[in-house]
Amino acid sequence: MDFNDTPEEAAFRTEARTWLEANAQPLGPDDEGRNMGELLTPEIVSTAQAWQKKKAEAGWACITWPKELGGRSATPMENVIWNEEQSNFKLPNDIFSIGIGMCGPTLLTHGTQEQQERWIPRLLSGEDVWCQLFSEPNAGSDLAGLRMTAVKEGDEWVVNGQKIWTSGAQICEWGILVVRTDPTVVKHAGLSYFVVNMKSPGIEIRPITQINKAQGFNEVFFSDVRIPDDQRISEIGNGWSVALTTLMNERQSIGSGMGIGALEDLVQFASEIEIDGEPAIDDSQVREQIADYIVKARGLKNTSLRTLTALSKGLPPGPEASMGKLVGAVLQQEASSFAMDLAGTSGALLDEEATPASAAWQERYLALPGLRIAGGTDEVLRNIIAERVMGLPSDARADKGIAFRDIPSGPPS
Ligand SMILES: Cc1cc2nc3c(=O)[nH]c(=O)nc-3n(C[C@H](O)[C@H](O)[C@H](O)COP(=O)(O)OP(=O)(O)OC[C@H]3O[C@@H](n4cnc5c(N)ncnc54)[C@H](O)[C@@H]3O)c2cc1C
Q1: Closest residue to atom 16 of ligand 1, CA basis
Q2: Does a structural domain hold residue 107?
Q3: Which of 203, 240, 241, 328 is least surrounded by Cβ atoms within 10 Å, i.e. has the fewest?
């Protein structure tokens, strides 16, 4: 892979940078990481929507999506350039990461033309916020074991059950939903995939308060919720393969770009904070530790370029994206912990006024355990890498070949 911009890419970079300089604020030292723990207030939501609308009107929203649906039909490489350039600016809280990172790409792959025309332009322009209703209290890593049911009545499906950890559900218009439509077949074969209007009668959303006081995710209860059949994305019973598209895009969007931005912040932080009256960055042990993180982050970046090579050849993001998330989340966690150590006693405080860098490192540190779970836990990602990248034998599965309704659950009677 050639790491230099071609003349066309350099021209594209200049165009992107010029637009950003005219329309966004440059990033300040305390800006990165701040949005991880913030409450989803109406002001945060409307600021994010206004920014998304502005980008859409100028042709800079979801740039790889088709022009006829509001995108720019840009190449994956142009998207990398755009993201690199955007990362130098102060951007609003990313309330669209699920909609744009996961729901949109799934609809573009599996939705009908009518479904794409109905949902993509409003998603792209920030009018509608989307969430992902996959996990249930007993189905996270083992997603195909989910129990929410949908039964067909005429042209509608009647849905009952509970989802959990649904990020942003309280501010969303639409959600992607996987439910069980046939319990008489093996667990992966009886699932179907829908789009649901989050304002439908029968949906109750209860926010969950986290360690950093944010309410990023929710419990969502469905009681006789009716979903029209034209909001079904998969063939009946083929929801698992559509869900896999969402999950691959999720790992790709969580894993990509992780590391370098946070480490540039760390270098800046170590230059500003002092140890025994000298800048921490002048201490050789501090420099050595930061250099170690940067080496890992560079390795990650180069690995992500391999995924990019696949994308630029028109292939979907593969299981290699799991590596970016696995290594990148741990790396960010270690670097945040190191920054808090450098801050001394104030490193333990989550108080914007009393801590260096306005508690951004503390907020980041408290949000990062979630990142090691969301979109596949460390153990699950290791299984994927072992089986699908390294070709090792698969994980033992006691429920293989058994109809879902016959899989034992709960204590033996
Ligand atoms: C910040 C955050 C945001 C999230 N947002 C969403 C969202 O918007 N929508 C949504 O649907 N879900 C969301 N989730 C849920 C997330 O997808 C699940 O938490 C995740 O899939 C793990 O499932 P679980 O919590 O049920 O843990 P479990 O699957 O019960 O896992 C418990 C433990 O067992 C281990 N384990 C499980 N299976 C295996 C195995 N086969 N081999 C080895 N170890 C195993 C796991 O690694 C883990 O340590 C979010 C989670 C977080 C933390």
Answers
A1: 374
A2: no
A3: 241
